[in-house]
Amino acid sequence: MKSLPNILTSLRLVLALFMFVALAAAAGAMPYLSDRLDPMQQFSLQRWAVYAFVIAAVTDFFDGWLARKLDATSVWGAILDPIGDKVLVCGAVLGLLSMGPQPMVVLPAGLILFREFTVSALREVGAGRGIKLPVTLLAKWKTTLQLVALAFELVVAAWGAFSLPDDPMIQSTAAMIAHGLFWIAALVTLVTGAQYWEQTRKALQGD
Questions:
Q1: Sign of the alpha-carbon dihedral angle for 193, 194, 195, 196
Q2: Per-residue confidence of the chain (207 residues) as pLDDT tens digits?
Q3: Residue 75 belongs to what domain range?
Q4: Residue 92: how many CB atoms within 10 A of its CB?
Q5: Looking at residue 103, which CATH number applies to its domain?
Q6: How many domains does the chain have?
Q7: Cα(62)–Cα(99) distance, rounded to whole angstroms?
């Protein structure tokens, strides 16, 4: 039972990879495959990609809780969990961008990717000097916001794949909600990035 949290985290990595490949294939980016897919097969891939994302996002809420509940925290889990989060978020952002022109999504998507890679670099630099950057409460909420916003954005981008109402008013309202959540997630992501930057700067000055 104590291996269950790490199994869930590993599952998140596998699902994130499947989601990205499925979205890339549906968007026509897979050689020897995409040009053989008909619209119904593309829709099917988009649906399964969204399902995979949602399941992977749910595992993010449970693996940490189970690790504490089962007293199964480990160094391996501490390494895998943030990697799983970043792979899932970045894979979903790139998959979303592959689904076609989305002007309202490009800037917040780029800001999120910029922050994630920057903080990863800060952690590497800090680790080399014995500096730890503990995950803040706002950073945990940031991940939740990102996952919820991306779920909405993926559903909106794959609207036709889910046979949702073909009413322009409903679709535009759903898009506005998704874009609003995504922009909020991007802003919170930048704030947490600034916090980590400041923590690293102070720690390095204290060396």
A1: positive
A2: 667 777 888 889 999 999 999 999 988 877 776 677 888 989 999 999 999 999 999 988 877 667 677 665 665 666 677 788 889 999 999 999 988 888 899 999 999 999 999 988 888 777 777 777 777 788 888 999 999 999 999 999 999 999 899 899 999 999 999 999 999 999 999 999 999 888 888 877 765
A3: 4-205
A4: 29
A5: 1.20.120
A6: 1
A7: 29
